[in-house]
Sequence to fold (190 residues):
Amino acid sequence: MAPSSSTRWRAARRSVNTTVHRELSDVRAILRWAVRRQLIPRNPIEGLEMPRRDDAQILPMGQGEIEAIIAHSPEHLRRAMLLSFFCGLRPGAVELLSIRYNQINWSAMSITIISARKGGLVRREIPIHEGLPLRQWFEADGADPERHITPGRANRSKRSPERLPGRRKRPGSAGGKSRCTRYGMPLFRR
Fold:
């Protein structure tokens, strides 16, 4: 492998510079690791000029787009999306799927969020927007303060009555092979 072959590879890829930069960074890291372990004598692409990143500016969705997405979403996703839009929560088990009704301060109209470990605040208070129907959800869910606000895999056991109706088995468990798109590895390990 020589820098000229990586240049030809780059031209054949027809990808944006950011994609090429990310992939070359992965290759460079692997080759540096191999040199440190003395598996190869030198890094053949050391000194290769990396393409300049061309990250596109991602514009936030407009009000009409948000309303259209929510209107066409199944009910179990609406709560998650509304909480994300109105409260700026991180998706996943740590923030969005872990919120319970007992984290709501009804008198102050705020939610205490236990933050994901990203180096910032451990917990934060988020004011409840008047458009977020938390009170209606609370009453519809039986006014149970221990109940999770969003139905999700992270907050239910297999026998929980909160399981979503008609939910399929996880990918890969019914004979189908689920693959990660970037590295081609199985998504679930057993």
